[in-house]
TrEMBL record:
EC annotation from Swiss-Prot or TrEMBL: 2.4.2.18
Native organism: Kangiella koreensis (strain DSM 16069 / JCM 12317 / KCTC 12182 / SW-125)
Name of the protein in question: Anthranilate phosphoribosyltransferase
Gene Ontology cellular-component annotations: cytosol
Positions annotated to bind anthranilate 2: R164
Name of the gene encoding the protein in the UniProt record: trpD
Domain Glycosyl transferase family 3 N-terminal residues, every copy: 2-62
Amino acid sequence: MQLLETIYQGESLNYLQATESFQAVLQGRVEAPVVAAMLAALKTKGESVEEIAGAAYALRQEAVKFPQSDFSVSDCCGTGGDGLNTINVSSIVSILAATAGVKIVKHGNRSVSSKCGSADLMEQLDINIHVSPEQSKQLLDDVNFSFLFAPDYHPGVKHVMPIRQSLKTRTIFNLIGPLANPALPEVQLLGVYDKKYCRPFAEILKILGAKKALVVHGSGLDEIAVHDSTFAVSLDDGVIQEFTLSPENFGISRHSIASIQANDVEDNVAAAKQLLKGQGSDAHIDMVAVNCGALLVLNNLADDFKAGTKLAKELLKSGQAYQQLQKIKEASYA
């Protein structure tokens, strides 16, 4: 691969070069040692915005196609990798947002860096994660929610899995997962494990066609924090802005990180069920509510973060979210 020399010299690939390179990788047309060298060289150099965007676009292009909608679709996810083992916030937020009327396509996998990945939690909540794209679209139409199990939609990733495992370090593939939703969401709440990725990811989402997004890093967390401040970068119809949010901006009290941590899958499942029934701890309720509140603002269902958080709390306490979970479960096996 001639482009390797470009990376070795410390230069970045442009968007088209990155797209074509990663399409070749995902199609199995590049030998493993060359792929390993490319991933390592990109990491050493530092992946550029165009390289990450091109790789993500390649992953989208090579994915199993999801039927497109005539309405706006949202996703809520994080890169993972913050190492703090908090409850699986994005999955609970997704179900809660669906309760509020947001059309959510959650794209996820089993645990890699956390104690409980989104697919692990969905299975434990008895949601069928292996449904066809057509069934998933029907779920989205009927119950505002569908879960796309990443390995079912990205067959090309099998060509790089052994290489990623042998490298034993984060690569560009750790970054592009949250950008590779086959439903091509126009609205996205995306958490990153390092503050340095907030601005680049907003720029990448713009390149990939997102209309509204909020990329966040919450003082060590890949989501909006309740223990300290959150650095956020918004994308709104092409305009990118940076700002800092505090728990007070959401109208909540502060909570320690320890109060939102979970030890294992069982802890996560118990927390999710309690929350959706409206019976979670104050810390858990606030953590889910601030993140859901932001997603509601992105979808124009709340005017500001305080109003969004308040609405999310009301939905939790009403028990409607648990009813929504039952509808999602039943529909996923229909």
